[in-house]
Amino acid sequence: MSVIYILLSVSVVVGVTFLVIFLLAVRSGQYDDDYTPSVRMLFEDELVKENNTSKQTKTD
What we know:
Layout: H1 2-27, H2 36-39, H3 46-59
């Protein structure tokens, strides 16, 4: 029975350690996306096309 308590406490310590490491990585900007904003201008805007067609129908 004491082995279960040891394994449980070790697993909780490992889980908390990984959580702290993950939170430190998020705060330091490890998961910031620097690539997508630079290529966003290469894709066509769907919203602009919809707005242009709605403006043409209002003037007709």
